From TrEMBL, chain B:
The lineage of its organism: Bacteria, Bacillati, Actinomycetota, Actinomycetes, Kitasatosporales. This is Transport permease protein. It is a multi-pass membrane protein. Keywords: Antibiotic resistance, Cell membrane, Membrane, Transmembrane, Transmembrane helix, Transport. Belongs to the ABC-2 integral membrane protein family. InterPro entries: ABC2_TM, ABC2_TM_bact-type, ABC_2_transport, Nod_factor_ABC_transporter. Residues 27-260 form the ABC transmembrane type-2 domain. It comes from Streptomyces lavendulocolor. The chain crosses the membrane at residues 25-47, 67-89, 110-136, 148-172, 184-206, 235-253.
């Protein structure tokens, strides 16, 4: 085995832990199509990092390069302290990868898949059986353990996939769109699984096209667009980059709508839908002033929603999604 | 763990995986076995009288059984490795191969597992087809134990060579159908070798090709070992073919496997 475990502790150089993943200027193109155009990453150990981007932004390519599946055309990267080009086996020994397309052997059973991983991680027979049984139990796959993996549902396959990834006890886990194609319940299960991974101290590198997912799970988010990092920060930091909070009032009765529009001259009106939007930071004081004005005019809205700027706003603003159905102030 | 023992351990894990596939889904293997058995029965019971008449002298159906069985055995290997090409091509499209590539395992173990599994399957298939041949009257009682051993060794060597070629064919094929088509020469070549008809009985312009293509020397050597016919240069030509194809197939497959996957 490569003696990779100790190499991250170079010297006692203070509290700064070495990053789990660092990359400078990663580039990759296929033919004349540039997929990654100089990507820099710095992911502290023990954190959850989400790479967020629309389809075709280069998320999967970034994961493939960092997990040593394919080589970059330029730039350099260290994963778990190992250079991806000069020491790929050092990287491989430290990581676990769950790709976008299920990486299970469909022809054999779930249990056999787990034992295959145990063998490839050179666990003893007994240890392998114990680890396999534990993970099957943890991922709620005991009942299906003796069935061929090809018969599993999408959610079960994904759970098996992650269970297989965990067999070797990886310190860094790459999850490429872990919830794409899952139903809502399976998605929430997957989120729970990812949260548990993090409490175990591993670093999670996750890609997603769902903003909610990044918001729910990630400590830091980078928005990847056209092969470049368009913005990076915590969810809060990203949201602060974009104004767009508002209160939305909907009316069923046109006369109530007209009355409200008169009482709230600052609102933008949508006469078709009988909807008013008032810029707001969503604070209690702000809301009360809106409600007070409606009360003064003796008007009751049929629906009131507070819209705080979410990552969708950030996302569309940063990725210049002109073809996206925007719901913003006009 | 040293790199050699790592290689052995990972390769044997991959071999177990492939044997598990073969055991769980035997239909592909059994289908491939059917072709040589049908050919054997067809050429012995349907064409047998005509074929033996063509051999001249006092040859009868029993003599033709003796003539055709070594060719049928080599053909069995050719058929089995078509299955290898198909299963390698199928396997390479599976996500699990991408997983293997991102694990700290011996890189060649995936291919070595396929090759070893396929050679074992070839030997098993040859044994089964051989048993059918014995059941319909094939006898090689004059062969010594050493000659039997050499015969099995030769067949294992042919299986190894053709398997590595088939692995390469499977790797460059985008899907199972393409793999099956690409591997077709491995089924056609025995038909235009000395398997069913002596090369001397073929048209003169065709004889050089039939004589020097890899199957003919292998079949002639096997015939010599089992039935005591003249081997001549065929022994070393067969071995040279096998070694060359093994080396070619090995480096081809390895370089394709080491390319970045799509």
């Amino acid at each position: 085995m490569p003696s990779s475990v100790m190499s991250t502790s170079k010297q006692g150089s203070g509290p700064q832990a070495p990053p789990a993943v660092s990359a400078i200027g990663l580039r990759k193109s296929y033919g004349d199509k540039t997929v990654l155009d100089g990507v820099d990453l710095h992911i502290p150990a023990g954190s959850v990092f989400a790479l967020l981007g629309p389809n075709g932004a280069g998320k999967t390519t970034a994961v493939k390069i960092l997990s040593t599946l394919i080589s970059a055309d330029g730039g350099q990267a260290q994963v778990a302290g190992h250079d991806i080009t000069t020491s790929p086996d050092g990287v491989r020994a430290a990581i676990g990868v769950t790709g976008q397309f299920s990486a299970v052997d469909g022809l054999i059973t779930g249990e056999e898949n787990m034992l295959l991983m145990a063998d490839l991680h050179h666990l003893s027979k007994r240890e392998g059986r114990r680890t396999a049984a534990e993970l099957l139990e943890r991922f709620d796959l005991v009942d299906a353990a003796k069935k061929p993996a090809s018969t599993y549902s999408g959610g079960m396959k994904r759970r098996l996939d992650i269970a297989m990834t965990l067999v070797g006890g990886p310190r860094i886990i790459f999850l490429d769109e872990p919830t794409t194609g899952l139903d809502p319940r399976s998605r929430h299960n997957m989120w729970q699984i990812i949260r548990e991974l993090v409490t175990g101290g591993v670093t999670v590198f996750l890609t997603t096209q769902y903003l909610e997912e990044a918001d729910q799970l990630a400590d830091r988010i980078a928005v990847l667009n056209d092969g470049r990092i368009a913005a990076e920060g915590t969810a809060e930091q990203l949201k602060r980059m974009i104004p767009g909070g508002h209160v939305r009032l909907r009316f069923a009765d046109p006369s109530a709508y007209r009355g409200a529009a008169a009482a709230l001259p600052a609102a933008t009106a949508d006469d078709e839908a009988l909807v008013l939007r008032i810029a707001s930071d969503g604070s209690q004081r702000d809301l009360r002033s809106v409600l007070d004005r409606l009360d003064a005019a003796d008007i009751e809205a049929d629906e009131l929603t507070v819209h705080t700027p979410d990552l969708d706003d950030v996302f569309f603003a940063l990725t210049g999604g002109t073809d996206q159905p925007k719901e913003t102030l006009r | 763990m040293s790199s050699l023992s790592l290689a052995l351990r990972d390769s044997s894990t991959m071999l177990r995986r492939n044997l598990l596939h073969a055991r769980r889904y035997p239909s592909l293997t059994l289908n491939l076995l059917l072709t040589p058995i049908i050919m054997l029965l067809l050429f012995v019971y349907v064409f047998g009288d005509v074929m033996s008449a063509g051999m001249g002298g006092a040859a009868d159906r029993a003599a033709y059984i003796a003539y055709v069985v070594p060719g049928i055995l080599m053909m069995t290997i050719g058929g089995t490795v078509v299955g290898t090409a198909v299963s390698v091509s199928n396997d390479m499209t599976e996500g699990i191969i991408a997983r293997f590539r991102t694990m700290a395992i011996h890189r060649g173990s995936v291919l070595v597992g396929h090759v070893t599994g396929s050679v074992l399957q070839s030997v098993a298939s040859v044994t089964l087809v051989g048993a059918v041949a014995v059941a319909i009257g094939f006898r090689a009682t004059d062969a010594t134990a050493l000659e039997w051993l050499a015969a099995f060794g030769l067949m294992a060597l042919v299986a190894l060579a053709l398997t590595w070629i088939a692995v390469g064919m499977g790797m460059v094929s985008p899907n199972a159908e393409a793999a099956s088509n690409n591997a077709l020469p491995l089924v056609i070549l025995p038909l235009i070798s000395s398997a069913f008809v002596p090369v001397d009985a073929m048209p003169g312009w065709f004889q050089p090709f039939a004589r020097y293509q890899p199957f003919t020397p292998a079949i002639e050597t096997l015939r010599g070992l089992l039935l005591g016919t003249e081997i001549g240069h065929n022994g070393w030509i067969a071995v040279a073919w096998c070694l060359a194809l093994t080396v070619l197939g090995y480096f081809w497959s390895k370089s394709v496997f080491n390319r970045d996957p799509k």
